[in-house]
């Protein structure tokens, strides 16, 4: 049990990790439940390249396996699963929209 807790604590790190766009794509596909072979087919790259990406991602995120990686990705907002952990950014109104909002509140 202590080993499990140590692994969970390790993946709870609050140090930001920089992943490339491709690595983020791979994390998303891992989180969606695809195998490395399926990820390779979807991204049109070799399975060996996916294996390398996964290895690099696990190292960068200090996670030991795919489950810990998905947990890390959820904690850091890197993935959105079934509309859970999704935070769309608020839209910034254009000048015209701002004017319309102001004029309608004055009336």
UniProtKB/TrEMBL annotation:
Gene3D superfamilies: Winged helix-like DNA-binding domain superfamily/Winged helix DNA-binding domain (1.10.10.10). GO terms for biological process: regulation of DNA-templated transcription. InterPro entries: Sig_transdc_resp-reg_C-effctor, Tscrpt_reg_LuxR_C, WH-like_DNA-bd_sf. Residues 12-77 form the HTH luxR-type domain. PROSITE patterns: HTH_LUXR_1, HTH_LUXR_2. SUPFAM superfamilies: C-terminal effector domain of the bipartite response regulators. Pfam families: GerE (PF00196). GO terms for molecular function: DNA binding. The keyword Transcription regulation applies. Keywords: DNA-binding, Transcription, Transcription regulation. The keyword Transferase does not apply. This is Transcriptional Regulator, LuxR family (Modular protein). It comes from Planktothrix tepida PCC 9214.
